[in-house]
Amino acid sequence: MNTLPALDLRGIRAGVSAMYDGADRASAQLRGAQLATILRLTPYAMLANVGSALAVLWAFRDPLPAGLLWWFAALLAVATVATLNWWQHRRRRLETASPRAAHRATRNAALLAGVWAVVPLVWFPQATAAQQILVATLFTGMLSAGTFMLAALPHAALAYAAVYTVAALGALLRTPGQDLIGVIGLITLYSPMVMLGALAGWRKSAALIASQKEAVRQERMLSVLLQDFEQHADEALWETGSGGHLQHLSPRLAELLGVTEDDARTLPLLALLERRAVEGFEVLQRALDDGAPFRELRLAVRRGDGARHLAFNGKRLLDERGRTLGWRGVIADITDKVANERQLRQLAHTDSLTGLANRFMLRDALSGALRQGRPGALLMVDLDHFKRVNDDLGHSAGDELLKCIAQRLRDSLRTGDMVARLGGDEFAVVMTHSGEAQEAAALADRLIDALQWPVDVQGRHLRVGASVGIALFDGAETGVDDVLVQADTALYAAKEDGRGRHAFYTPAMGEHSRRRVAVEEGLRHALLHEQLSLHWQPKVDIQRWTIVGAEALMRWDHPVLGRVNPAEFIPVAEQTGLIDDLGRWALQEACRTAAGPLAGVCISVNLSPAQLRDARFVNHVRDALRESGLNPAMLELEITESVLMEDVQGALDQLHALRGLGVRVALDDFGVGYSSLAYLRRFPFDTLKIDRAFVHEVLARKDARAIVQMIAQLAATLGMRTVCEGVETAQQLAVVAKAGCHEVQGYLVSPPKPLIELQKFRAAWQPHAPEMNTLH
């Protein structure tokens, strides 16, 4: 069942109160609009009042009651004043009105109703039946019409209706007889309905005024935005009529198209564009001929000595019958965007540092040569000592060196060859003018000769040299990746042969590559098939000659390849990302062993740089300690200085987190890298391990003995222990003991052993140091 919405009297009352007494501009504007509505009807209302008054005079003409003419004169005076007021303000646009003006209108309405109230109260009771009918009819019409006319001002409407209602009821009550009781009842019901209708009418008119005001505001805002858009945006609106001429030429549109008002009036848009178009005109013309909406159609037009690139969006304008009235759309200046796209394409195919082609361009060139069946050669070029330049002088010097090297490579090529930088200090040359080995060798020698001469960088004469690997291709069914692998394999062979030379790829080199693939594949299954194990090399305290620690060393027995040296499979694991799994297994196995069979021995586990860069590594160590139950103080993690060289702060943060777990940290191979004292200041290592290279030479070279002694003294000053690696003879032991080292590790004590053998070795250990002969 449908229900009619209730009249919200509370909301109306709040709105009326705000309109009459509100001091804000919105209320003032609403009062002004409503008063203007009343004022526009004033002359017609006054004319109707005077006419109605004349009808009353005519009805009571024989004879005229006493005072009726005075009443008419009073009404005429009120009507005259109201009309004169309207006349004075008829040309004035009433934008706002004060609360005082609204209340004055209420008083004027009550005054007019009061003048009319005299008629029924004074003359209706003694009037004839015909006169009473005329007054009743007139009064009923004026009550309804006047109240609705004044609905724009609710207080005035209510005051007007109330005065009329009181006057009518008073007249009826003063009239003798019982026949008018029903009329009294009707007026009692009818008058409130008229008042409620007036309030409802006010609410609708107020809402209409508010919506009209909002529409004007939005239209103005849209106009301002459109004007600002046309003046400042990169885009411009365009619209054509049925003849194709522009309907409006804004300054921005004129500037984008490079046309004038005269041009736009005399020529259609397509003719204007055709005169200046460089490319894209035919596509735009076809789109307009097709009649379908289009987006981002690009058009290049002449601009001075260059070109301006425009993007057109358009949609057809249709009438109610579907006939074309013209086109409307937006033109955007995308010159900067096109330039950026070209620059990005250039960057995507060019090395940003040297300006050479990059790896993508190299692959495209190599792929094109192979696809066309052209014989040629790929030369992989690697600088021999570039890392030393970066390490000694910094990356800025390294970058300058690479730029010079790139220019020398360009100068060494023949027309048709291409040189690319693959990354770091690695370059590649695609030789396509010949596929002869002799030609490729001559080019390789030319490149090596060009790069061996010193390069002036930051006031220094730097000599780097280069090695070259060559892979020939003859157009057979060879893939790009195959050629790249062959050239890379040949490059490694050239570097292993002594650097500064070139090497051709041979099938024998492929065996080395295939072994590496086999090692990589084997590593993926080694953990699952329990092919990995840990061997242990004990560490002995020199003074007490007791076993105080053991270093865990990973061993791998491959079912086909046999025993694979860690120096071979660890780098492969690091390059392929498998080192994380291997390192985590080694850590867990070492902790389990240290908590069980090797209880009481501090175990050392080597860390790869890749492991320490892993944000989850600290959690892995925590998990291994918790699962094994090992005391953290019995675990020592060994790192090399290369870990600190790449990301010092990140590595130090990880080390501090590890120390927070309670584990010990050792710096391995100290003395062969940077040996930076800054690392020792920023992170208090527990142990410094002196590299075996110094230990091997302590008997033959005084500088080696001095270095060992200096490191031992430095460690003692910083509160660290020292471990000498690679001690093999009693004489070496005597020297490092005299230097102040704390522990030794090497074949003099024991080679790395499986766990069972180490347990037997430990059980049979006698705490008596071998006889040491010292040097004098």
From TrEMBL:
InterPro entries: Biofilm_reg_signaling, EAL_dom, EAL_sf, GGDEF_dom, Nucleotide_cyclase, PAS, PAS-assoc_C, PAS-like_dom_sf. The keyword Protease does not apply. The chain crosses the membrane at residues 41-60, 66-87, 108-124, 180-202. Residues 516-766 form the EAL domain. Residues 374-507 form the GGDEF domain. GO terms for molecular function: catalytic activity. Keywords: Membrane, Transmembrane, Transmembrane helix. Residues 295-346 form the PAC domain. The keyword Transmembrane helix applies. Gene3D superfamilies: 3.30.70.270, EAL domain (3.20.20.450), PAS domain (3.30.450.20). Pfam families: EAL, GGDEF. It comes from the Bacteria. PANTHER family: DIGUANYLATE CYCLASE DGCE-RELATED, DIGUANYLATE CYCLASE DGCP. This is EAL domain-containing protein. It comes from Piscinibacter aquaticus.
